[in-house]
Predict the structure of Nitrite reductase/ring-hydroxylating ferredoxin subunit.
Amino acid sequence: MESLNEASVPRPLLTLDHIPVGGFAEIEAVVEGDAESLILYREGDTVRAWLNVCPHAGRRLDWAPGEFLRSKDGLLVCAVHGASFELNGGGCVAGPCRGEALRAVPVVVRDGAVFLL
Ligand code: FES
């Protein structure tokens, strides 16, 4: 029987009720050994996560910690120069880094909490 080692055990980031449905949260987490700020986006009971690093100039996307801009058509908008990202794959669809993408971070929702994989 295979035993679980520490690296294979998911680590909880926060509970789902800390993210509004259709909204965002920001959280600090260690990803691949580095402390990173993450964007969490909740859609129903699923959550997607990306590094909070804009591919344009490497700045955070939120205008204040955890405060993200959203366009009328539902895009995530970087507060620095206005790059706009779709919320399925995190691709930039308008603005100075059009064609690039946010870096996805694998997460899973389990027992009402979000876990980093
Ligand atoms: S740093 Fe995000 S658009 Fe420039």
About this structure: The pocket of FE2/S2 (inorganic) cluster is lined by residues 54, 56-57, 59, 78, 80-83, 95-96 (CB under 6 Å). The chain has a mean pLDDT of 93. Strands lie at 11-15, 24-31, 34-43, 46-51, 69-70, 76-77, 84-85, 92-94, 107-110, 113-116. Residues 2 and 102 are 35 Å apart (CA to CA).
